[in-house]
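Translate sequence into structure tokens.
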Amino acid sequence: MDEQKVIRNIGVLTSGGDAPGMNAAIRAVTRTGLYYGYRVYGIRRGYHGLWRGDIEELNRSSVSEKLQRGGTFLMTARSKTFQTPEGVDRAIEMVKVFNLDAIIAIGGDGTFKGARDLARKGIPVIGIPGTIDNDIACSDYTIGYDTAMNTAMEAIDKLRDTASSHERCSVIEVMGRAAGYIALNVGIATGAEVVLIPEKPFDFNRDVLKAVLDGRNRGKHHFIVVVAEGAAKADEIARQIETLTGIEARATILGHLQRGGSPTLRDRQMASLMGLHAVECLRDGRYNRVVAYKDGKIVDIDIEEALNMKKTIDPVELERAIILTS
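Result follows.
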């Protein structure tokens, strides 16, 4: 890393799964970069577009009317080529072709690993956490998380209406392959009878079946079970409930519905402030960092340290969820 390197041209990309608020982060990087006198280049389709040279200069008009839009107008892709040493070298060549002095990468851990590979080759990088799962270890919050939870909550509220009308059990599968943050918080917000997350192994008879039966025996006529995709399969849970209790059960997989939609105020604000902070890191000569939200403040952490950190749901949060769903 060359702390004295002069930054004139900044490249910005989005990689991995899209998340609501990514456009707000791109906008903030562009507007802040222009404010400080940099030229900003949008790299389309993430690292795949980087090694292919799919790069175009951005200006204020380029990011106008993007703040409220979901997805990412720079698009995103996963690149098998970039995951090889040869692919990284090809990306470095394109960095030189377009005279990019630094890269700001918006995404999750996979995105940060790609940025680290560039940093190890001498390219200054800054990572911005953008993933609906909120599973970036160094940050308390990730762009897209609030919108995804609100989308899931609204869908479950609608499913509760029909479950109540038909005296039915609705089993809803939300995103979260290795992290149950969405399921846990949405379960609390929707008054679910059962919440299943990958961080906490469950016993079907004790944690699902008995909870549903206890509710029925208290006079309830409808039930909500929220399942993180990494904890169990909603269709299998629904089948078992109906077979063993006789209660009509239906599975709903929300899937990529949670990735879409206009970002909430919190995601727009957080993305904007993180994008601004990323450019200011470069301005101040703090290279190879990940922007993070910690203890109510936006900070930055060394990218190697950030990737070595671990994160899991606080046992206190689990206990509170059990109290509120029991």
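Note: Residues 9-144+263-308 form a domain with the Rossmann fold fold (CATH 3.40.50.450).
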